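Appendix C. Worked example: Metallothiol transferase FosB
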Amino acid sequence: MSIVLNHTIVPASDKQAAATFFAELMGLAVSAPSGPFAPVAVNDDLTLDFDDRADVAPGHYAFLVDDDTFDAVLHRLSTWPAVDYGSGVENGWDRRINHLGGGRGVYVRDPNGHSYELFTAVP
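Step 2, the predicted output written as structure tokens:
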């Protein structure tokens, strides 16, 4: 059997708000609570379990996505003026995309400071 990441905990100051932000960004749904978590199923193998924490250390979560998903995320971002996103760490939140690895990529900052990276080709 290969190794598959099944779930990971995403710390948040407000788990429901953080799960909702991520789900809406990615075109997904927040599932029913599972224990103390607000889960979002990313695909058949991976669930992000958002959990309330007093201290949130920002994390980085990277996702390889298809072109249609990338386009849908960019469209949603264009309608969310208060959300920081950009082409890369060195460029800040310049509201642009990058073209690393022959594809397209973007970084999105969530309200807890987490960085979601979406890319269409492996750099």
